[in-house]
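Service request form, structural biology core

Requester: graduate student, group of Dr. S.
Request type: structure prediction, single chain
Budget code: on file
Notes: please return the result as structure tokens.

Sequence provided:
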Amino acid sequence: MRLTPAQVNQIKTAVRQYAGKGAEVYLFGSQLDDTVKGGDIDLLVKVPTPLANSIQTANQIAAAVMMANHGRKVDVIIDAPNLDKAPIIEVALQRGMKL
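Core staff response, request fulfilled:
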């Protein structure tokens, strides 16, 4: 994994702030591969309760993480009980790393 402990902590803080204390966050994609450089930060945020505005929550988390990482692009996918399950969610859960 190419994120520092400080970056991981900042991501967890942003997820708790905008998605709640019960939310879990998974890192997936290129940041897990130590042999490559660059790339965006791909996050799956899994929440145990329905979210009224998942797009707003995803954007708030992405903006907070992006600002803390000097503008690095951040993609956030939300998995909540009231949302349709996109195929990427299973991929992120199988190949990702829980932070």
